[in-house]
Amino acid sequence: MRARARVGVLFVSPALTLFCLFLVGPILGALILSFTNFNVYAIGNWLRASFVGISNYRELLFEDPLFWVSLRNTFYCVSITVPATIAFSLLAALLLNSKRLRGKAFFRLLYFLPVVTNTAAMAVVWRWLFNYRFGLVNGLLSLLGIKGPNWLGDPAWAIPAIAAMVIWRGIGFNMLIFLAGLQGIPNYLYEAAAIDGANTWAMFRYITLPLLRPTTLLVTVMTLIGHIQLFEEPFIMTGGGPLNATLSVAMYIYRLGFRFFRLGYASSLAYVLFLIIFVVTLIRMKIGRSTFDYAGS
Amino acid sequence: MKWREIAFVVLVVASLVGLNATARTPITIWAMGEEGLNLEQITPRFEEENPDIKVRVVQIPWDLAYDKIITAVAGGTAPDLCQVGTTWMAAFASMGALVPLDEFIARSQVVSPANFFPGSWSTAVVGGTVYGVPWYVDVRVLYYRTDLLQAIGVEHPPTTWEELYQVGLKLAEQGEYGLGLSPHWQEFLPFVWQAGGHVLDQTLTRPRVTDPEFIEALEFFVSLFQSGIAPIGEEIDLFEAFRTGFYPMFFSGPWMVKLISQRLPEIEGKWFVATMPKKVTRASFVGGSDWAIFASTPHREECWRFIEFMSRPDVQVDWYRILRALPAVTQAWQDPLLAEDPLMQVFATQLEDTVAPPATPAWEEIAQALTTRVEEAIRGVHTPTEAAQLLDQDIRKILARL
Lengths: 297, 402
Hints:
The complex is a heterodimer.
Chain A: H1 2-33, H2 55-63, H3 65-97, H4 104-116, H5 119-129, H6 136-143, H7 158-183, H8 187-195, H9 200-211, H10 213-228, H11 232-237, H12 249-259, H13 263-287
Helix pairs in contact in A: 1-13, 3-7, 3-10, 4-7, 7-10, 10-13, 12-13
Chain B: H1 2-22, E1 25-32, H2 33-38, H3 43-49, E2 53-60, H4 62-75, E3 81-85, H5 89-94, H6 102-106, H7 118-122, E4 125-126, E5 129-130, E6 133-139, E7 141-145, H8 146-151, H9 161-174, H10 185-194, H11 212-226, H12 238-244, E8 249-252, H13 255-263, E9 271-274, E10 284-293, H14 300-310, H15 313-323, E11 326-327, H16 336-339, H17 342-350, E12 354-355, H18 363-378, H19 384-401
Parallel strand pairs in B: 1-2, 1-3, 10-12
Antiparallel strand pairs in B: 3-10, 4-5, 6-10, 6-11, 7-8, 7-9
Helix pairs in contact in B: 10-11, 18-19
């Protein structure tokens, strides 16, 4: 038994070493950094930084209005994108799961392409789509007689514009997970319900949704974790946006750390973000605790 | 048997010694963008004149360069010599990444502060020490459509703030906008300098943004947007806008000369450049790139010789021929190629009145605060005076941390 365990560890050790070196190491390093005042002078000579206890955290929470602005922006965006992404991806999965659909592979490809395409490239294109005068979005709206707003130049519309792109990009991945979940629901349940006279909506509400709970929990948690770290879209489309309206927490970390070189302060913000995501995830999982199985497996 | 082995060893040693004797000292140079792509048109000449040095050029795109250099400095993999954007000099010097060059300059025949434009030279001085030597300069001027101005009865480009405003207003009435301006600090600061104001004081420790000159500049800048002369929150491709007259005027640097000629042949002969409008002075923003030697290099002498080579007036003119970048060495401008080009003469005139942003390592942070407060004033979130006071507080906080 011991010998087998040793062999197992040996096989895992290369991956484990890389994991520790490139993941655990920097994570711990950032934690240490967050208690220092590491700034531009310290980059060439680490000894120029000194420990400052929790003063970074104190400054962040009590003396930095931009922190709260970035937090508000991020949660505003997340409150739109997370429910919408989950709803649309569930819809897409239901449609793709339908027996009557032809060309499933084509639609799967269509939905999944945004996931695998380079975000930066897509953000550049979307920036032009949202252009106030010449963009396609406003062009299509004008066909309906609506004068489109200055999406990326108006602080009130910038986050919704970015949210649209984030949702569009997130549908494919969650759709695949929902598809897997849907296919795990035994068919005889639907047949039994049909015999009892249930219509489509009732079947969805009483069979599909409850049995999808574990999948929904997974998708929600993953989407939450991903979307709270919103970075690429605002970075490329608005650079923090008109009057900091699209400055997300992750973008603020990047700006503090890599443009202002305040790596100590940026690390403390990164840990605050981690704690926020941790707490949010914990809450979500507590809510999703009540699961019961109809099929009793 | 033994003498064959001895002969072999002697041969190997001899060849190694021989190789070493002809080995050149290698220096690695990092250069950005177009400069990086074209530098190797000049380096062979340097290698001919200096057979003991071998030059290797590594090209880096501009948008990655800042991060790449920081990473290299922190990780100990910095190159020997690097092209450094002028606004980055203070940050890199403060990190201790660059070699102070005062000693080299003192004993040099080629490089001396008097040979360069003063505004350009100032970009290489951080805290009283010289850390770089200017390579080429970039200065901003006013690009304008001569035909569109004539159409509204204006014969010469605006030369004062008042004229800029009036011409801009008339152009905006006839077309869409009068001036393609953005709240970016590089477009705003020249107005501050033209009014005689500054962002920081001489010691670079106190903000001067609540001085009347600064507020006057901010009020004028804001009025350009709020009167409809310049766009608020719009993003248009500059070339298309200039071609169609959407932006009949805009401020930019010398690189636009070549680009406009290449991309917009339709407006050939219908555009020209002018010096900045005057308030107290007609100061413009000066940028460009400086050469800097990284402290980690073992080949400082060789790097210095390359800098001297690039600072010779004839090499500066050659570089202008290759890339149309404005020479930083004043003597190069006497070459007929530059002296007899009316477009270039506008740049030459403007180069006599330039200011560079303050050489403080906190510049990125200050610039960000500046852009934000200016944007707030433009959009009416604060009045210019309020915005200036908030900016004053922002800058004090930033400087206190240094």
